[in-house]
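Input.
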Amino acid sequence: MNKFIDPELFDLLPSTKLKQVGPNQFDIVIQRKSRIIMKDGKGVLTKVDKIKHHVPKAKVSLRTSAPVCSKTKAFLKERGISVLEC
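Output.
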């Protein structure tokens, strides 16, 4: 499957890059050079909630090329969101 899908289907902003990697598996893709901090982590959590509102059994991961703050990584992991580096 592994294709980008329209984020507006999940009431997300059009600038959000969302990739479907399986039937109920999604990756939120953030490609930038600056560090992912807690503010970004809370934004990701909001996006995950919107996705799970439409697909209750969805498994969502964050895929990024940027370094992720250790506190943010722990924050997301506690909430069941895995952080993948690309």
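The chain has a mean pLDDT of 95.
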